[in-house]
Amino acid sequence: MAPKVLVSDKLSETAVQIFRDRGIDVDFMPDLGKDKDKLAEVIGQYDGLAIRSATKVTPTILEKADKLKVIGRAGIGTDNIDKDAASKKGVIVMNTPFGNMITTAEHAIAMMFAVARQIPEASTSTHAGKWEKSKFMGIELTNKTLGVIGAGNIGGIVCERALGLKMKVVAYDPYLGEEKAAKMGVEKVELDELLSRADFITLHVPLTDQTKNILSRENLAKTKPGVRIVNCARGGLVDEAALAEMLTNGHVAGAAFDVFSEEPAKDNPLFNLPNVVCTPHLGAATTEAQENVALQVAEQISNYLLTGAVENALNMPSVTAEEAKVMGPWIKLAGHLGSFIGQMTDEPIKAINILYDGVAAEMNLAALNCSVVAGIMKKFNPEVNMVSAPVVAKERGIQLSTTNQDKSGAFEGYIKVTVVTEKRERSIGGTVFSDGKPRFIQIKGINIDAEVGAHMLYTTNEDVPGIIGALGQTMGENNVNIANFTLGRSEAGGEAIALLYVDEPVPAEARAKLAETGLFTQIKPLEFDVA
Questions:
Q1: Which of 85, 249, 262, 503 is exposed most, by the fewest CB atoms within 10 A?
Q2: How distant, in Å, are the alpha carbons of 1, 39, 53, 209, 295 from that of 8?
Q3: Active-site pick, 263, 291, 412, 495
Q4: 132 a catalytic residue
């Protein structure tokens, strides 16, 4: 059955057609997002949800979204989506950060010009029939120093445009390396230096715990007298009340804001102040940008539902379509390894340690980690997936660590998962063969070669004669067909294990018969999702 997607906000017909062309069943209801009750009523039918800003994806909506796998936001901001609730529900949240980069950067440059030359006030005055030429004395941008807070995708474009205007650019960004800064033609500085040197300051960072109120009252006091401040990024980055005071006392010469701490902004300390330019969150409001993000979100949702590719996800690692093709079997293997250990472990888990060897160490480890953790956590919550598993593990206080190493053995690569509890450590290793099938290759340090099946039986015993006969006879007497039978031992007469791949679950009666033989120290039925 084809995946089903709901478009609950206004997207272009071209974007909607992308879903149809990709074989996805799509319902286009552009006004449904405004009716939360109706949305809650129908959301349970859909695998995907494509929205803009009108639709509010609340915990109440997500509670009803039993089939939902992905939410795609046509745009950057996802404040209208409860990402914590989505993660716990196992729903991927995507945005489209690249479709409106140029548009938002251009708006910041336009706002900088507007506040430098007092264009809105001059326009209003002239429309009123006044000719106050001497009142609106502006400044040039040429040779002024622009301080860019956040030199990522949009901030980088602003830097480029500002250099084209012959401005000097200093940038504060903890993730910007010296080499990249030099290549961009900007000077990397700490925040205090930027504040003291910049004639204009423009912000291009997301709103996080680290960036909230980054231009606080204290930091605004550190700015150069006569500075002009532009915010086209997110409300909440600037203490608006403190900025209003500094605009009034003249320390700050002007401000241009497209975003506000509360939106829609009906009342704000910056409103009606001289030389403050305000626009209603227009950063992405161009025809080109709206079309770009609509097309992008349709492609991203389609790619995920059809191929498993995860692009621009905010609550799980991204996996490109190319990575998905190569990594698909390894992601399955990681899940099987986690599932094995999860099913074998009854006591609380303290830590999960994952070793990646050879080709596995060169892959997208964040995605593989999520698959391992999801496999383990399914024992405790069958509804968990790669999105929700890290949240569940974190809530349980489980520590996750990884180790990478070069190829160290006969296999091109392998993954080994070790779980630590108060009582013991338990480990399992696996690889992917050339046929693309995952295999278990080591359990408890004992080498094996076992195909992964939907129904399996794991036993441990002392290495003595009669084990194969007991297992085979008991399975036959209980009409359980063995598809594959793998044995391994630490040494002659030492600890031994058996792993049976069977066509149907081993009934309790058969397991009881095995226990009665007294040959086995452990008998454990296992189930794996091999679809």
A1: 249
A2: 22, 8, 10, 30, 15
A3: 263
A4: no
Cβ-contact 423, 347 below 8 angstroms: yes
Of the candidate CATH numbers 3.40.50.410, 2.60.40.10, 3.40.50.300, 3.40.50.720, the domain formed by 101-278 belongs to 3.40.50.720
Summarised one tens digit per residue, pLDDT across range 357-368 is: 999 999 989 899
Catalytic: which of 161, 234, 489, 511? 234
Burial (0-12, 13-18, 19+ Cβ within 10 Å), 335: buried
Q: Is 22 a catalytic residue?
A: no
Tell me the two tokens of residue 187: 């000077």
**How would residue 261 be classed by pLDDT, with cut points 50, 70 and 90?**
very high
Residue 436: burial class (beta carbons within 10 Å; 0-12, 13-18, 19+): exposed
Helix axes 467-477, 508-516, angle to 10 degrees: 150
Could you identify the residue written with the tokens 């990594």? 327
Candidates 3.30.930.10, 3.40.50.1450, 3.40.50.2300, 3.30.1330.90; correct CATH number of 319-444?
3.30.1330.90
pLDDT in tens, 178-226: 999 999 999 999 999 999 999 999 999 988 888 999 999 999 999 999 9
Distances (CA, A) of 457 to 45, 325, 431, 465: 37, 30, 20, 19
Question: Which two structure tokens, joined as six digits, stand for 420?
Answer: 């630590």
Q: Is 73 a catalytic residue?
A: no
Beta bridge partners of 502: 455, 482
